[in-house]
Amino acid sequence: MRRVGRRVTEVVTRAFTLDYRTRAGKRRRMTLGDWTPEFQIANARAKAAALKVQIEAGKDPLGEQTLARLAYSARPTVGDIARDFIHEHGIPNDRPRTVVEYRSILARHILPVLKDRAVADVTAGAGAVASDESESAPRRPPRIFGRGRPALAGP
Fold first, then answer.
1. How is domain 3-73 classified at the CATH fold level?
2. What are the pLDDT digits (tens) for 132-146?
3. pLDDT, tens digit, for every residue of 15-53?
4. Angstrom distance (rounded) from CA 76 to CA 136
5. How many CB atoms are closer than 10 A to CB 1?
């Protein structure tokens, strides 16, 4: 089973797909590209023809694409984890002001030093380096009871 098709999603996104089976018999549906005035059925058929040659040679283009994506995401960076933390934990679970504070702390103290480092490569010493380098960052007065007033400040 090898055929080029067109898929329309709930939000009316149109895309060209290629349905095929691997040598092991697993069914696959690979998206060739979204329909645009520049990417029409002729382009999709040409791309599908190139992929069919690979499939007939025993390759699994979608499987290879998935493995490449997993290999890339297998080494997340500190920046990736920080972004996921804000979007998956902070925004759904915390108050807006807390999320602002999280973002501020990350932006001032952690991300300038560790953003592009793989999480697996970060050691306790790296945290100390980030702390030392952020000492020059301006300090905020501590807050008490979320009232927006500096702690121990007079009336």
1. Double Stranded RNA Binding Domain (3.30.160)
2. 554 555 566 555 555
3. 889 999 988 888 988 888 888 888 888 999 999 999 999
4. 28
5. 7
Alpha-carbon distance values, 139 to 104, 133, 155 (Å): 11, 13, 22
Cβ distance 18 to 32 under 8 Å?
yes
| Contact call for residues 44 and 52 (beta carbons, < 8 A) | no
CA-CA distance, 115 to 144, in Å (whole number)?
A: 30
What is the rounded distance in angstroms from the CA atom of residue 79 to the CA atom of residue 116?
6
Q: What dihedral angle (degrees, nearest 10) is formed by the CA atoms of 66, 69, 106, 99?
A: -20
Spatial distance between the Cα atoms of 106 and 86, rounded to a whole number of angstroms: 10
